[in-house]
Amino acid sequence: MHNDVKNPTRRQLFKAIGAATAAGATAGLLPGCGKSARHTRENLSFSEIPHTLDARHHLPKEYSANVLLRWGDPLVASAGSFNPATLTASEQEKRFGYNNDFIGYMPLDDKAGPGEGEHHCRSRNSARGLLCVNHEYTQPHLMFSGYNDKYSATRGVSAEHVAVEQAACGHTVVEIEQTADGWQPVLSSPYNRRISLNTPMHIVGPAAGDRRLQTAADSSGTRVFGTVGNCAGGKTPWGTVLIAEEGFGGAFQGDPDNIADPVESLNHHAFGIAPDNRNWGDHDRRFDIGVEPHEPNRFGWMVEYDPYDPDSTPRKLTSLGRFEHEGFTLVSKPGQPIVAYGGDDDEHQFVYRYVSSDIYKPDDFSHNRDLLIDGTLYAARFDEGGSGRWLPLLFGQGPLTRENGFRNQADVLIDARRAAALLGATPMDRPEDVETNSVNDCTYVMLTKNKKRDSDEIDAANPRARNATGHVLEIVPPGQYGRRDHTSDTFKWNTFLLGGNPNAENPNERGAYGQQLPGAISANGWFANPDNVAFDPRGNMWIATDGCEGFGFHDGLWAMATDGELRAAPKHFFGCPQGAEACGPEFTPDGKTLFVAVQHPADGGGSTFDRPLHRWPDNDPALPPRPAVLAIRRRNGNEIGS
Ligand code: FEO
Ligand code: CA
Ligand code: CA
User: Fold this and answer.
1) CA 429 to ligand 1 centroid distance, Å
2) How far, in Å, CA of 280 to CA of 198, rounded?
3) How far is Cα 7 from Cα 4, in angstroms, rounded to an integer?
4) Longest dimension (CA), the chain
5) Which Pfam family is one of this chain's hits (predicted)?
6) Which atom of ligand 1 is nearest to the CA of 101?
7) What letter does residue 83 receive in the DSSP assignment?
């Protein structure tokens, strides 16, 4: 999501706790996690594309992409062709949603059916699977005719359009298969499903049922309709998908200062709920905090669901805390607890880790299904000198007591931000994806930017004031290459790269990549604002960006080795059409297909449905620009980037 989509006013409320000393922003980057020279960038053999900015998407010449799914594409054969002028909410519930973000590819075993996720997710089938896609947020000025600008659309949406928007948020499950014409959706599939703001869900874990989760419509505090702000996510080895609730505050309107309970007033301010947010609450009263002050507490969680069982009820996992979740990704080792890493995508917010109470048993699917319900959440403290510590968010420990306003563990999880700050976790430059490279077993933190960091607030892990270009940290748990202990409460860390132009005059925007060998990156190799990340089967890192247009070129994908001489030396692979950010890169298990979500094409610059900047991907005068998922293949069919 673009930074300006969220409400900016609440950001002032988070004054950093301010660590003092600063490392030089462009100091030489340490070799870090790598021990082997195997994974050099020589095997990233594609023809690099240039930094450009136009109405098309761009790929190396030896690659091609087909448009797999666009906003409004039917998920059932009976839905027919798409006409945005006549779109109703019930019709939208049968169609691909808006602003695609996270993508999870879940393989389908040809010999198994619905409800048999155990068989499917082991099959590693790379030619047929379920594509599980988040729809982060809606933009009525680009979805519907008649709105003159973004603000009038946001504040003046009709009841009918609010209903369509709420049906266009959430998530899609759709079966896809590889055909002679490229990847295609299977419209007859029993798995195809939309999850929207209307989908019934359970609330589970330590905060479920707490009085702060109870509303007039749900006195149990355990049942809620829908999910929103679905940014990135994760996958589990037991065949479920995790979807994050990130910018949910923007869905609620009302003035937190008018809420009598000071705890909730502070809480609602912290997530940007304000009188001039979008006007959904006019038409759907639960989104007005003056009517239902607890409804926002039922959002801001990670949601887990089973894509292999189309009748399953998604559940919100309170064990993973409540904040603006970018996503949570897992480290699953047989006989050990599950470890999951996630970020809170806001200025001066924290990096989190979860460790399950019980161990992961690869052959016991029913046992594994509860591993994300019972465990401990931690926040990261990055110390000077490259060491760090995970700080547990446990009621009664340290400052997490009644004296500081916490009644119980539910309060600690509902107000996880406040708990982590009291524990002394390090406020970061907007943590986006946090994901582990299974080849070297190190964990990488995408920090997209933080223009609100003052010069007296810089620290070793966030070394730039007014960080406009973002950076990437590498967490190195104790242990050997490829066999590290992610359950340890201590870790080492180092700066993997600093985003930005390596030749920028402003030292706060000057990029630093790898070992800075002469010629290691080209003039097109640098980028800004890392957001999502994926690793190919060989352990190369693929970073998706959100913000490069501020530096004069498209957002897209950059690929790089994580080890060896060309570690952290990026090469430019994919470029978005103007206005879009790149999201959700996801490889098939064989590494031969790369799915990319192009989010909010033609956004910005006064672009509207009636006067769009361009009409990617259809370029049809009858259709608006449409967020879409591309399936990228190498023309010779070989592994991507090999
Ligand atoms: Fe939705 Fe954190 O980007
Ligand atoms: Ca983003
Ligand atoms: Ca993101």
Assistant:
1) 13
2) 14
3) 7
4) 65
5) PhoX
6) 1
7) -
Number of helices and strands (H, E) in the chain?
10, 33
Pairing relationship of beta strands 593-599 and 170-179 according to DSSP bridges: unpaired
Domain that holds residue 537: 63-247+300-634
Q: Locate 213 and state its tokens.
A: 């989760």
Single-letter code of the amino acid located at 621: P
| CB half-sphere exposure, 281, CA atoms < 13 A | 23
Report the chain's mean pLDDT, rounded to a whole number. Answer: 93
Provide the residue type at 19 as one letter.
A
Q: Encode 268-291: b = buried (16+ Cβ within 10 Å), e = exposed.
A: bbbbbbbeebbbbbbbbebbbbee
Q: Is the CB of 228 under 6 A from ligand 1?
A: no
Encode pLDDT of 159-170 as tens digits: 999 999 999 999
pLDDT digits (tens, 9 = 90+) for 67-99: 999 999 999 999 989 999 999 999 999 999 999
Q: How far is the CA of 288 from the centre of ligand 3 (A)?
A: 26
Binning pLDDT at 50, 70 and 90, where does residue 32 land?
A: low
β-partners of residue 223 are 202
Asked whether 197 and 228 are in contact (CB, 8 A), the reply is yes
> Cβ(549) to ligand 1 under 6 A?
no
pTM reported for the whole predicted model: 0.94
496 lies in a domain? yes
Q: Does residue 257 lie in a domain region? A: no
Question: Does the residue 292 lie in any domain?
Answer: no
Q: Whose CA is nearest to atom 1 of ligand 1?
A: 1
The 10 Å CB-count burial string (b at 16+, else e) for 480-516 is: eeeebbbbeeebbbbbbbbbbbeebeeebbbbbbbee
Question: CB–CB of 75/63 below 8 Å?
Answer: no
DSSP for 549-604? GGGTS--EEEEEBSSSTTBT--EEEEEPPTT-EEEEEEE-TTS-EEEEEEESTT-S
Q: How far apart are CA 600 and CA 101, in angstroms?
A: 10
Q: Tally the domains of the chain.
A: 1
In a domain, 294, yes or no: no
The pLDDT value recorded for residue 34 is: 59
Q: 3-state SS of 302-362?
A: EEEECCCCCCCCCEEEHHHCCCCEEEEEEECCCCCEEEEEEEECCEEECEEEEEEEEECCC
Both structure tokens of 293: 């002050």
* C-alpha closest to that of 430 among 541, 531, 515: 531
